[in-house]
TrEMBL record:
It holds the Pfam family ATP-synt_E. GO terms for molecular function: proton transmembrane transporter activity. This is ATP synthase F(0) complex subunit e, mitochondrial. One of its GO terms (cellular component) is mitochondrial inner membrane. Keywords: Acetylation, ATP synthesis, CF(0), Hydrogen ion transport, Ion transport, Membrane, Mitochondrion, Mitochondrion inner membrane, Transmembrane, Transport.
Length: 100
């Protein structure tokens, strides 16, 4: 008992001849779109390149700020810990952990 799963064949209408003017307009718009896309891509790529350069310069500043904050936090934690457990602060503490 086999089931036939084939779809009935439908006849397609014959293609319509497109006017040369319409074909010219389609191709012209396609080519214009490609050139616009290339120009837009180069503009956006330049803008992104400048943005990345700016971020790279800012990253140096941000990293330095993070380093200073980490050192300050470490110093404060060590001082708080020394006070909490009643340990005297060494004389060279300011050399090892300078106040920022």
């Amino acid at each position: 008992m086999a089931v036939d799963y084939t779809l009935p064949k439908s006849e397609l209408p014959s293609p319509i001849r497109v006017s040369p003017f319409i074909r010219f307009c389609r191709w012209s718009l396609l080519i214009a779109g490609v050139f616009y896309g290339m120009k837009r891509q180069s503009t956006l790529a330049e803008r992104e390149r400048l943005h990345r350069i700016k971020l790279r310069e800012q990253k140096i500043v941000w990293d330095e700020e993070q380093r200073i904050l980490a050192n300050r936090r470490t110093r404060e934690q060590l001082l708080a810990l020394a006070k909490e457990i009643n340990v005297p602060i060494p004389d060279d503490f300011d050399k090892q952990y300078p106040p920022v």
